[in-house]
């Protein structure tokens, strides 16, 4: 599903450049539940941005669902993102003036789905995350955990192949973090590939595979003791 070979990425800093990713090799199969761990500056967010087609790599190869990703303009990248990827962010990234159901329905609008059908599908996904009763509430009226559930419903509504979660529990307390991780596990059990960026060991331990980054290099890639439900 995600295949990366000899991936390099640098950013210019004044006259110099910062070499962030240094020849990464990573293969994530369809249906895996993988966490990418590393301290700040390890390159994990850069990796997520490249996998999520939010940034370009300098050299190496990146295949998404068997397709070589190269020389994409923003329009092509947006089409692929909408087709294959769902995003969950630490800061939720909900639109403040839209209700929960409107936030969830937004990706369907970009897919050209009619208003009535968008509403029906969005409500189905709010039900999936246990928030039917909060459908008409604004983000300001929701708790952190509820906002993250809305964000997960929004990520799932287009039926993506891969969910990319960037520190999905970073802004949540431990009990709420647990419920969000249970939701991601359930999504994974249904066959979706889930790719989590985290710096929290207890979160990573709940995935099936932990890839550790340090200074732009993979230093370990191990299966966890998690039982995979089939």
Q: What portion of the residues fall into strands of 2 or more residues?
A: 25-35%
CATH class reads Alpha Beta
Write the CATH homologous superfamily. Answer: P-loop containing nucleotide triphosphate hydrolases
In what order do the strands lie side by side in the largest sheet?
6-7-8-3-9-10
Series of H and E elements: EEEHEEHEHHHEHEHEE
CATH architecture: 3-Layer(aba) Sandwich
This entry's quaternary arrangement is single chain
Q: Find the CATH topology.
A: Rossmann fold
Kindly state the mean pLDDT as a whole number?
91
Assign an overall shape.
globular
Compute the number of strand runs: 10
Number of helices: 7
Helix content bin: 25-40%
- Structural class assignment: alpha/beta
Rg calc: 18 Å
Residue ranges: pLDDT <50 for 5 or more in a row? none
Describe the sheet with the most strands. 6 strands, mixed
Domains (count): 1
**N- to C-terminal distance:** 19 Å
């Amino acid at each position: 599903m995600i295949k990366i070979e000899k991936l390099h990425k640098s950013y210019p800093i004044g006259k110099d450049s910062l070499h962030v990713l240094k020849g990464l090799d990573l293969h994530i199969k369809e249906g895996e539940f993988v966490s990418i761990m590393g301290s700040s500056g390890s390159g994990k967010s850069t990796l997520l941005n490249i996998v999520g087609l939010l940034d370009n790599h300098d050299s190496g190869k990146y295949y998404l669902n068997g397709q070589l990703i190269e020389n994409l303009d923003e329009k092509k990248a947006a089409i692929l993102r909408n087709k294959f990827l769902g995003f969950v962010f630490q800061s939720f990234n909900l639109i403040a003036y839209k209700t929960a159901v409107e936030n969830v329905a937004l990706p369907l609008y970009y897919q050209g789905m009619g208003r009535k059908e968008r509403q029906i599908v969005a409500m189905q996904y709010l039900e999936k995350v246990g928030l039917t009763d909060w459908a008409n509430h604004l983000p300001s009226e929701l708790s952190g955990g509820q906002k993250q559930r809305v964000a997960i419903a929004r990520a799932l509504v287009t039926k993506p192949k891969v969910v990319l979660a960037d520190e999905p529990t970073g802004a949540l307390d431990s009990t709420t973090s647990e419920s969000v991780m249970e939701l991601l596990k359930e999504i994974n059990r249904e066959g979706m590939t889930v790719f989590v960026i985290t710096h929290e060991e207890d979160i990573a331990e709940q995935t099936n595979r932990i890839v550790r980054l340090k200074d732009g290099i993979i230093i370990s890639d191990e299966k966890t003791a998690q039982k995979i439900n089939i």
